[in-house]
Amino acid sequence: MIRVNNRDEIEWEEGLTPAALLERMRYTFPHIIVTIDGEVVPPEEYATRPIPDGANVQLIHLIAGG
Amino acid sequence: MSEKTQATRRVLAEYTYEAPPVERGYTGQTLYVNLSDNTISAKPVTDVMKEKFIGGRGFGLWLLWHGVKDDTKWNDPENEIVISSGPIGGITQYPGSGKSLVVTISPLTDIVIDSNVGGHFGPLLKFAGWDGIEIQGKAEEEVIVVIDGVSGRVTIEEAPDAPVDTHLLGHWLIEQLAEKKEDRYFMSTVSAGSGAEHTRIGCLNFSLYDRKRKAPRFKQAGRGGIGTVFRDKRIKALVVRSGPVRGDSNHPADPERIARVGTRLHKEIHDYDDEQNRMRKRGTPYLVQIMDDYDLLPVHNFKFGSHSDTPKINGDVWEARFTQGLPDGCWYGCTMACSHAVDAYTVRTGPYKGQKVIVDGPEYETIAGVGSNCGIFNPDDILEINFYCDTYGIDTISFGTLTAFVMECYEAGILDKEKTGGLELTFGNGEAAIELLHQMGRGEGFGKIAGQGIRRMKEYFVSEYGADPQFLQDIGMEAKGLEYSEYVCKESLAQQGGYGLTNKGPQHDEAWLIFMDQVSNLLPTFEDKAEALHYFPMFRTWFGLVGHCKLPWNDIVPPDNRYTDEPAKIPEHVQNYVELFSAVTGREITKEDLIAQSEAVYNFQRVFNLRLGKGRREHDAIPYRSQGPVTVEEYESRAERYDQQLREILGLDPEGMSTQEKMAALRKYREEQYERLKDAVYERRGWTPDGVPKLETLKRLGIDFPEVVAVVQKHL
Ligand code: SF4
Q: Quick check: ipTM above 0.90?
């Protein structure tokens, strides 16, 4: 289990990455900052950086709206 | 400007002047035009105006305050329309620096409305010698007002031959008033249309001349019925003409500093726009699919947040329809260039059927408002409505939101074919929506009733058709009398405040907090929400003081923004604004000063609302549709979400509860939350629990002028 945005409990699975997590949550906004246990993940590592079980992940969406 | 013989133009009043040079973003004077007695004069811009009100919306509020009385209504002659850009407005080195701000007393809300608009009018007005224009009075006959900075002449003229609808009038004015081809480049017009005079949702169209398309284009000051006031004053158009715009026309204190900041942002847009929002290719329609993905796109009068047909009207569709490769900026130097258009659209209904026209936009708000919110997923219907709204001078947002309301009333049996004069206004009926719009243009039939806006329709449906007032109050998406803009905010308490705790009514230009709050959970406490509802409205107000566009603030983001302390604020861009203001005006400011500048104007506007009999806690009420599910259908469509909230937040077991019981429990909780939010926000803003700015707040902000204090004291 991982905790997302200090609120949502999400099932963990082996090989889970930020890219897979964003897809699973249908988070399609282009400006999302990902942190794993407080560390910012560079976007080029979204597809490769493993998210460990029990991690505290933040998927921070910047402001949108016209 | 030459006067062509083919059209009758009779000069009623004339004023000659010598345009002063612009110094550090200001000309030092505003233009006053009274249409009742045909007087024209210049007013000095005082130090207090520059110091406390900065420009743009600030100037507008200050001039309007002194022009009206406590009991002035929107259609009284002393109501004014004030247009001003701001000190940064007119620079060409930083994207988004050419906006105009318009204020007036609104026919929808009976308080001040402000609207931020592109097009060239505001900056050209400055280069023609004026920091703003203030129009008071009502003309006896239809007039145009011409401000010619080149010859130094302002005239009020009768122009009986001039058409009223914008797409015709724009061309007519160019033909009549541009002597040489180049004149049209530095000329801009403001106009409304026939729909603005028959409804309360009239908008203004601000033109720019598109050199590539060789035609005028129009950007809209949409919200709050400013176009209705304009037509009530019997104005067909304002026209301004200046000499050629140059890089230094705004005569800033430190041009190199501006160039440095500008170059950085141009590069950012160039390097990252394609991978971020694709503003240069699709503009704000990129939001349509994203909002749908997050259940935030209004569907069927804000009942739902997504629809399976959204791909038919999303950004991909508009990217294919927009003419690509043209520099679609709404002011010189805007490399964000998001102001797209569909060219050679053949109008298929109404008085202009068969004409080939340019349709400006559609923007996200239009697509969501007249599209998904009305259940209309046909791009051609959206284009048809967009074109006619603009040329008739009707706000697409109010039109979309009120049509969605009418459609729900129709489906709920409050309206029927007999009451609508034969229009079958069900969700998804594009043809009926288009005909409703034509009725507004002609001032006929049910269109005339609908054009009064949701607040007045609610009263009418109750008194004439015996409709249930509570149901209408719940589903009518208006607050303060203004129709909501197009985001579903049921699951974001902060955004309910972002709409409800505003000065002018529910327009998202004060705060858009849905992602921060609902998705990212960055505002978990009331204090966090209150802080955001202090900072963001103040920050965003600032764009309207200086003549800036909001989009280059956060629709492009520097790649290292993610590593900053407060990424949501885009700190590098905030610093750019600090640099720009300091470089233009020569007044060094900090990012804290920027907020303080806005705060003074924002609080002044709140006091202005008090002066006009509104602006207290009760006036910040919002409809329940913006807070939670009103109908069983809505609840059940998202039952898993709501049941979970009942369990986790309220400790209730939804098993065994009827849907009605569950809805009632949820409603009680959510309505209490909104009241608690009000308390927190008022306290953070330095207001009393009744929403009145405290005297110490006015003092701290330096706006404790005797007449301001006198208004507030009545409510303490
Ligand atoms: S970002 Fe878009 S709306 Fe803003 S000034 Fe530029 S073109 Fe106009």
A: yes
